[in-house]
TrEMBL record, chain B:
GO terms for biological process: anaerobic respiration. NCBIfam families: formate-DH-alph. GO terms for molecular function: 4 iron, 4 sulfur cluster binding; electron transfer activity; formate dehydrogenase (cytochrome-c-553) activity; formate dehydrogenase (NAD+) activity; molybdenum ion binding; molybdopterin cofactor binding. It comes from Teichococcus deserti. This is Formate dehydrogenase-N subunit alpha.
């Protein structure tokens, strides 16, 4: 059954699923963008934009979101080691789509310690740099509700999404050479369920609903924080990427970078913005050079190098304009 | 908990001290975030470390571990000095006005009656002055120099903000800010909740930590009200159930006492348990003790328990020592006095203090039986794991039997949560392999033992041969059958004493609750406080109606709360002397002229007149106790005591080590370290990524927090040349561990008594079996010290040393 009788997108992450199986409510007709595809037909309807709101001031850093993410997506990060910090795994990986990042920050105004804990992961930009940078047709799609999803069978592992992302989120699997990140649980949202992390969050620091509702919810939280002396409390919904479908409530919204380097004014590189077709590759190379020493410098060391074969394959695919049917979000990757 | 988890949303101020609720109870902590988000409640955290709870607090203050009494007594003093007392409540509902005997005193850190030889107090002077009518004398004007209020005032006068700074290391201004916030809750329309856990209990003076906060809550008028209370956060989902059902060597069920060898017969046992009221007209509910005791004995031995044989009183074990607690059992093992040990759902090798002593004790057993759903280090204590378990396997002759049990998700029954809710649960999965329910295992052992006693006799087979065992399948009692037995039933028709022609409960029917229990052998009940959980209305623990009229947080039809489905204990105290709620917006009960009505089951007789009967019905006085009489072994008021291993001497009495009546064994004294040899103050704790020693078996949890570490300040790390992520060795007088170092701003050196005190934090989730990396726990280092009243081991304050080191031998991957 579709959600014809109910809202087109779930309004909360806390409800329990119905017992009977449901058909996916996210389909080809809901795509508004598709990587390396110039002739995408217009969507058949407009879904209500959704958003996940992460209230950093309510987060206790329990990692239930990480645990729920692993369980739902069936990823299994390796048992690592302690390197002197609370982050485990130590970074986002192809098996860890979300990560609590812990920052010990001494507030210069009060001289008191604040332990800033930010859940990192895909921001689901309204203007997604990854999608724009992606040369593989249909490897990255955007639904009209705002979710940016990776369709792994179309991914060629070139790593351009990594370079196109202003938040340093996607990770390329060394096992299958495909790119992975948070899907905003598109497979759950498609059947009326909120993201697994929001469902698991014990303090409801992570909430989910329509973007409008989430902004309203954020207003209340910001008022509360201001009443507690956080005069710069605010919402993080950066305009440089057209706003995001994952937003933060920050106690110090004037200083997002103190939250483990959350970018102050994220935007897509103008090179990614402007390139078309094969010029992408020229642009990519130029961007790689330009980016040395920039905020996202660290990414290049980790991203897979694009081999000549992959480049050729990418170009072949771009030229063919391969039309792959849209991915059914309920399908789990192998 | 006096209140329920769901009630925390009603509070104005949350004080987390002696616990780390966000970290250790993340799901329950949501009620704090509710209170913050919807009531604008403030959160105060007082802890040696800036914890995950502190990360969402409004105010955080550091404190040296083990010095909480000083902090709390100083808050009491602050409230008294600044007239921030809920006077009406304090005068009417506490023993402030009671006059204490002449002869009671306190000097040099000790109360009157101390006997250094016995390491015990003669508590006879710790009591009220009684009139000829047998009632305690009171002075409602609080003028009498020996009334409790004036003694309390004098007792806490020494606890100044300066003393807090000196002993606790808490900056004076931080203390004053917090004391000011707490004092505001003396208003009848503002409440504070205290959330605490093992950070208060696991000290040699644990009960006094809790007493100090309870007294503060009483003078603020915060007990029995919505959003108030003393809320102990229990460490396992059913640890509340463990104590309720008497799984302690000195307890029977429902907090009835195990007899001692001096109580040779039932009459002697009951003679000291008459509980006559100490003030006119008071309830003193424990006057019903005999009804609960006899019903318990009938549940144990059925028809064999008769009036003539004192209901089989002679079948009950008689204690020759205060308790056979875990510390004593392992002391006795080390003395070679224990042959066998059944270890059900416990992992002593990691859980009990002084691991070296625990391991040596296990090695002297003839046999060890473990019952656990998971592999435990205890079951493998004989296996050599390099540095992680460096034993000589060949030298150990203990025979080990591992009996795999079902895990909670494969079982059914009830779990009692911190809020005293008995919540029935159903199996979600089928147990793997040979795993069996604990009830099946215990029944099989019992049936075989009984058969042996039947065949071979033995010194005293009667208690075993006559044990009541009337189950549908004797080999595996069903959880419902056990629950019904706990609830209790009528054994003969119960007639109305006022009208004998009327039958209240027919023979064989479940009693509605403990009010129907009798001491004439006509009723049985396995655990009186649980009575009402499974009566003729059905299994009340299985109820799942989450309606909450007027959003009080009571949820009266959700499962069953003991006693009598009461959600907030002492709820009569939520209303004033005339029975009107102190805060109409937070009404729990009110007197309608004829009876008590409201949102909760009244914690008082429904028709008890408000000015006649006082709210603390379990106390003989009818009121709560600021002065505890002789109820606790270590004093009627909380007084500052240092840990047995402390970086500073006790400023009240430098010669006094630890709690003067704390539980220590002669053999352990040589293993206490001094601050010269071991300069750093260590504490132990849990992390939110793990549950005790269980989740290291789970690959997801193991990935989220993979490896044992210790935490230390940047200052100490600099001093010692320790880099974050490098190996360190931490050792005490009792043992040594190696760990990764987490160097953090969240721990800062404290200045106590003019000395810099460095705190070292040691989490406890690693061992040598499971999916996580091999590691150690704090129990390799912590001392063999027990709480003075309840023998809880102290894990929260001890001394260690630290140095840079190398990786341990023995392979780090489990």
């Amino acid at each position: 059954m579709s959600m014809a009788n109910g809202p087109d997108s779930p309004r909360t992450a806390v409800s329990n699923p119905p017992v009977q199986p449901m058909a996916s409510n996210l389909g080809a007709g809901d795509l508004i963008r598709r990587s390396a595809t110039s002739d995408l037909p217009p969507p058949t309807r407009q879904l209500t934009p959704v958003a996940k709101l992460i209230d950093v001031s309510k987060c206790i850093g329990c990692k239930a979101c990480q645990s729920a993410c692993i369980e739902w997506n069936d990823t299994l990060p390796a048992v690592g080691e302690n390197v002197g910090v609370y982050e485990n795994p130590h970074d986002l990986t192809e098996n860890m789509f979300t990560l609590m990042r812990f920052t010990e920050w001494v507030n210069p105004a009060t001289d008191s310690l604040e332990w800033l804990i930010r859940k990192d992961g895909c921001m689901h930009c309204a203007d997604p740099g990854c999608l724009k940078a992606c040369p593989a047709p249909g490897a990255i799609v955007q639904y009209s509700n705002g979710i940016v999803d990776f369709i792994h069978e179309n991914c060629i592992g070139c790593g351009y999404c990594v370079k196109g992302c202003p938040f340093n989120i996607p990770r390329i699997s060394k096992a299958d050479h495909r790119s992975y990140k948070c899907t905003l649980c598109s497979d759950r949202v498609a059947v009326g369920q909120g993201p697994a992390c929001a469902k698991a969050c014990p303090t409801q620091a992570i909430v989910f609903g329509t973007k409008e509702d989430m902004k309203k919810h954020a207003e209340g939280r910001i008022a509360d924080l201001k009443s507690r002396g956080y005069s710069q409390a605010g919402l993080y919904d950066p305009p440089g990427v057209g706003g995001t479908h994952v937003m933060y409530v920050l106690h110090h919204a004037d200083k997002p970078q103190i939250y483990a380097g959350l970018p102050e004014n994220p935007s897509i590189s103008p090179l990614v913005q402007s390139w078309k077709g094969v010029t992408k590759y020229v642009g990519m190379a130029a961007m790689s050079m330009l980016a040395v020493g920039s905020v996202i410098h660290g990414v290049f060391g980790r991203a897979n190098r694009v081999s000549r074969e992959e480049e050729e394959e990418a170009e072949r695919l771009v030229e063919q304009g391969d039309e792959t049917p849209p991915h059914d979000p309920r399908e789990r990757r192998p | 908990m006096t209140n329920a988890w769901t009630d925390i949303k009603n509070t104005d101020l949350v004080v987390v001290m002696g616990g780390n609720a966000a970290e250790a109870h993340p799901c329950g902590f949501k009620w704090v975030t509710e209170a913050k988000a919807h009531r604008g409640a403030k959160l105060i955290v007082v802890d040696p470390r800036y914890t995950r709870t502190a990360s969402v607090s409004d105010v955080y203050a550091p404190i040296r571990q083990g010095s909480d009494i000083t902090f709390l007594n100083a808050v009491i003093n602050y409230c008294i000095q600044n007239d921030k007392v809920q006077w009406e409540y304090t005068k009417a509902y506490t023993n402030a006005a009671f006059i204490v005997k002449e002869g009671f005193g306190y000097a040099d850190g000790l109360f009157s009656g101390y006997d250094e030889e016995k390491r015990d107090y003669d508590r006879s002077s710790w009591d009220y002055e009684f009139g000829e009518d047998g009632f305690a004398k009171v002075d409602p004007t609080l003028q009498h120099p020996r009334c409790v209020w004036n003694l309390l005032k004098a007792h806490v006068a020494a606890y100044t903000p300066e003393l807090v700074e000196r002993i606790c290391g808490t900056p004076r201004q931080k203390f004053l800010q917090i004391a000011g916030m707490i004092a505001e809750c003396s208003s009848p329309t503002k409440t504070m909740t205290s959330m605490y856990a093992l950070g208060w209990t696991q000290h040699s003076h644990g009960a006094q930590n809790i007493r100090a906060m309870a007294m503060l809550q009483l003078i603020l008028g915060n007990i029995g009200v919505r959003g108030g209370g003393m809320n102990a956060l229990r460490g396992h989902s059913n640890i509340q159930g463990l104590t309720d059902l008497g799984l302690m060597s000195h307890l029977l069920t429902g907090y009835l006492n195990m007899p001692t060898e001096k109580e040779v017969d039932y009459k002697t046992y009951m003679a000291s348990r008459q509980f006559r009221p100490l003030r006119p007209g008071q309830t003193s509910y424990w006057q019903n003790y005999s009804k609960f005791m006899v019903s318990f004995q009938k549940a144990m031995w059925g028809d064999a328990a008769t009036a003539e044989n004192d209901w089989c009183y002679h079948y009950l074990s008689k204690l020759d020592v205060p308790a056979y607690d875990i510390l004593r059992m392992f002391e006795l093992m080390n003395q070679g006095k224990v042959n066998g040990y059944i270890c059900q759902g416990f992992n002593p090798l990691l859980a009990f203090p002084n691991r070296g002593k625990v391991a040596a004790g296990l090695a002297r057993l003839k046999f060890l039986i473990t019952m656990d759903p998971l592999e435990t280090e205890t079951a493998r204590f004989w296996e050599n794991h390099g540095d992680f378990n460096d034993v000589d396997t060949k030298a150990i002759q203990t025979e080990v039997f591992q009996l795999p049990t079902v895990c909670f998700a494969e079982d059914q029954g009830s779990l009692t949560n911190s809020g005293r809710w008995l919540q029935w649960f159903w199996p979600a999965a089928t147990p793997p392999g040979e795993a069996k329910a604990d009830t099946w295992i215990m029944a099989q052992i019992f049936l075989r033992m009984r058969e042996l006693y039947r065949k071979e006799g033995g010194a005293f087979p009667d208690p075993i041969l006559n044990l009541s065992w009337q189950y549908h399948n004797p080999g595996e009692p069903e959880p419902e059958e056990l629950a019904k037995e706990i609830n209790g039933r009528a054994l003969t028709d119960l007639r109305d004493p006022a009208d004998p022609s009327r039958i209240l409960v027919e023979a064989g029917k479940q009693v509605v609750n403990f009010s129907q229990l009798r001491d004439d052998g006509s009723t049985m009940s396995g655990c009186w406080i649980y009575s009402g959980c499974f009566n003729e209305a059905g299994n009340n623990m299985a109820r799942r109606d989450n309606h909450d009229p007027d959003n009080t947080g009571a949820h009266p039809n959700w499962t069953f709360a003991w006693p009598l489905n009461r959600r907030t204990l002492y709820n009569r105290a939520s209303a004033d002397l005339d029975g009107k709620p102190w805060d109409p917006s937070r009404k729990l009960l009110e007197w309608d002229g004829a009876k008590w009505v409201g949102y909760d089951v009244p914690d008082i007789a429904p028709t008890a007149k408000p000015r006649d009967v006082m709210p603390f019905i379990m106390n003989q006085e009818g009121v709560s106790r600021l002065f505890a009489r002789g109820m606790l072994r270590d004093g009627p008021f909380p007084a500052h005591m240092e840990p047995f291993e402390s970086p500073i001497a006790n400023p009240f009495n430098p010669k006094m080590r630890g709690n003067p009546v704390g539980r220590i064994f002669e053999s352990d004294v040589a293993q206490f370290g001094t601050s010269e040899e071991f300069p750093y103050a260590a504490t132990s704790y849990r992390l939110t990524e793990h549950f005790h020693y269980w989740t290291k078996h789970n690959r997801v949890n193991a990935a989220l927090q993979p490896e044992f570490f210790v935490e230390l300040s940047e200052e100490l790390a600099r001093e010692k040349g320790i880099a974050g992520g490098s190996w360190v060795r931490v050792w005490s007088k009792r043992g040594s561990v190696r760990a990764k170092a987490v160097v953090t701003k969240r721990i800062r050196p404290l200045i106590c008594d003019g000395k810099t005190v460095h705190v070292i934090g040691i989490p406890l989730h690693w061992g040598f079996v499971g999916a996580a990396r091999k590691g150690f726990g704090p129990n390799s280092l912590s001392p063999f010290v027990g709480e003075a009243n309840i023998e809880t081991p102290g894990y929260k304050a001890f001394l260690v040393n630290i140095e840079p080191s190398t990786a341990p031998r023995g392979g780090v991957v489990a």
